[in-house]
Amino acid sequence: MSLSTEQLAEIEEQRGQTAPTRRAVSEGLEERLFTAHPVLDHGFVRVIDYMGDDAAICQAARVSYGKGTKSVQNDEGLIRYLMRHWHSTPFEMCEIKLHVKLPVFVARQWIRHRTANVNEYSARYSILDREFYIPAPEHVAAQSEINNQGRGDALQGEEAARVLDMLKSDSMRCYDNYEAMISQDGQQGLARELARMNLPANVYTQWYWKVDLHNLFHFLRLRADAHAQYEIRVYAETMCNIVADWVPFAYKAFEDYRLGAASLSAQMVNCVQRMLRGEEVSQENSGLSAREWREFETIVRGN
């Protein structure tokens, strides 16, 4: 992770400031405020601000029940009920603002989640740093033979070394040309907004990303999944640790009912019921396609 001396000084200054408040405070997240948590080779995630905690979720839920109703129910039990029954608005009462440094190709995946407020570093006004994501050798992998959008086994030996060398040399050459185009040494220099088109997709960008807890959980359910691309999954896993400290009851319910859960179709439920009755169920008599059957077996048999 690369942080400039100025950024480190700013973080220390921010973490050194305290102020009295009457708003809800999450002690776990207070400890993380402003700290940069490293991700990949030059990236990070850090918490800039937040609103709400587990109690805020319960407060929002109980206001819709009417005075006195459900007021004695414990917070953890209520949160688990809300998560289990797919309630959303109580979780929207909590928000978090993150400062994220990430490769451009990861940002393009991330921005598909259109339920957040985003402000990105502008290469029209500023010059991007000479920082590129270069994967570790174990993550330089071949195309998967069974998944068109995934990777297979890691490349080995000379082939892996050749790919890594191309990634490094192409990144540096593109940045050299970027600098040469915008240079005003003996020339006018190309506008930054045009010169940036020459930079590769593994160059790092930064943004502020503000999202409510409901939509953050949706992001994490998809991107912290084992099938998600590694480069975005490690960001999601870092964010999972942050959220677990912020709203521990809500995150535990999310782990149990989303991350660690499985969704079954009506046909799959029927298969489970038949199995429990002692019937022999196979793909041929299940009503499921071959692919659905493979997914079903993975869920119920773990194979």
UniProtKB/TrEMBL annotation:
It catalyses: dUMP + (6R)-5,10-methylene-5,6,7,8-tetrahydrofolate + NADPH + H(+) = dTMP + (6S)-5,6,7,8-tetrahydrofolate + NADP(+). GO terms for molecular function: thymidylate synthase (FAD) activity. Its cofactor is FAD. Pfam families: Thy1. DUMP binds at Q109, W110, I111, R112, E120, Y121, S122, A123, R124, R196, R223. CDD domains: ThyX. It comes from the Bacteria. The keyword Flavoprotein applies. Keywords: FAD, Flavoprotein, Methyltransferase, NADP, Nucleotide biosynthesis, Transferase. Homotetramer. Belongs to the thymidylate synthase ThyX family. Binds 4 FAD per tetramer. Each FAD binding site is formed by three monomers. Residues 1-23 are annotated as: Disordered. PROSITE patterns: THYX. The keyword Transferase applies. FAD binds at T89, R112, H113, R114, E120, D212, L213, H214, H218. Its EC number is 2.1.1.148. This is Flavin-dependent thymidylate synthase. InterPro entries: Thymidylate_synthase_ThyX, Thymidylate_synthase_ThyX_sf. Pathway: Pyrimidine metabolism; dTTP biosynthesis. The active site is at R223.
